[in-house]
C-alpha cells in the first residue's frame, strides 16, 4: 500500500526524515540582475528535530525556507516533504500539501483580524472542510498558554499572544514540519523567549519538527542544531548550540566579509 502524502503526521509515513532537499539551486533575475540565492544545497530535516538556519544577510536563508516549504520553485534540485517530492505535484496538490502537511510561522503574525484566536487557529482545517482533532488542539492550545484567550480577536491580544496564536495555528493540523521565518523578529525579548520555548516544547513534548530562520544567536540556542549558509551554500553545522558558540561562529562570517 502506498502511503497517503496527505495523511496526518505519523512516524510510519516519514521514517525519520520530515523533509529533505537535494541539489537545491535558486537563481533570481537574469543578465546583470542575476543572483544565485541558493547554490546546490542538500539538507535533511529529521523528524522531531528543531533546526535553526543562520548566516549573513542575503545568504539565502529565506529562499531556502521558501523552496523547502513549497512557497517558491527552485531553479533546479528537488524537495521532499516526507516521501512526497514537491516537483511531482500540480498547483492544486501543492496547495493541499502546504495546507495539510506544513505549518508556517512568519515574522508578521498574519492573523485574520475579524476572527477570534480559536477561529484563526482552526481556519486551515475549516477551509479543508475537516473537524480539527480536538484532543491535539487542546494540547496545543494548553502548551502555548492560550486557554483563557480563545475568544479574543487579534487586536485584543499582545504581539506575543498573537504569535502564540500563529504557532498554535501552525501546529493545529499536526504537520510533518513547521517552517518559521524570523518568528521573534517583531517581539520583545520576553515574548520572543516564550514563543521560542513553545516551538522547542512542540518538538520535545509533541514530537513536531521545526525549521527556523533567525538572525539571533539566542534564538538559535533553542534549536537542536544550527546550519550556516554563506553565499547560498551550506558551509557549517553545529549540534547542541549555545548562543555563545553561535555568536562566535557568526563573528567568523563578519571577519571574512571585512577581509574579502
Ligand atoms: N525575488 C527576488 N528577486 C531577485 N533577487 C532576490 C529575490 N529574492 C531574494 N533575492 C536575492 O537573493 C539573495 C538571497 O536572499 P534571501 O532573502 O534568501 O536571503 P536571507 O539570507 O534570507 O537575507 P536576510 O537575512 O537579509 O533576510 C539576496 O541577494 C537577495 O537580494
UniProtKB/TrEMBL annotation:
<dbReference type="InterPro" id="IPR015854">
    <property type="entry name" value="ABC_transpr_LolD-like"/>
</dbReference>
<dbReference type="InterPro" id="IPR003593">
    <property type="entry name" value="AAA+_ATPase"/>
</dbReference>
<feature type="region of interest" description="Disordered">
    <location>
        <begin position="1"/>
        <end position="25"/>
    </location>
</feature>
<keyword id="KW-0067">ATP-binding</keyword>
<feature type="compositionally biased region" description="Low complexity">
    <location>
        <begin position="10"/>
        <end position="25"/>
    </location>
</feature>
<dbReference type="GO" id="GO:0005524">
    <property type="term" value="F:ATP binding"/>
</dbReference>
<dbReference type="InterPro" id="IPR017911">
    <property type="entry name" value="MacB-like_ATP-bd"/>
</dbReference>
<dbReference type="InterPro" id="IPR003439">
    <property type="entry name" value="ABC_transporter-like_ATP-bd"/>
</dbReference>
<protein>
    <submittedName>
        <fullName>ABC transporter ATP-binding protein</fullName>
    </submittedName>
</protein>
<keyword id="KW-0547">Nucleotide-binding</keyword>
<dbReference type="InterPro" id="IPR027417">
    <property type="entry name" value="P-loop_NTPase"/>
</dbReference>
<keyword id="KW-0813">Transport</keyword>
<dbReference type="Pfam" id="PF00005">
    <property type="entry name" value="ABC_tran"/>
</dbReference>
<feature type="domain" description="ABC transporter">
    <location>
        <begin position="19"/>
        <end position="256"/>
    </location>
</feature>
<dbReference type="InterPro" id="IPR017871">
    <property type="entry name" value="ABC_transporter-like_CS"/>
</dbReference>
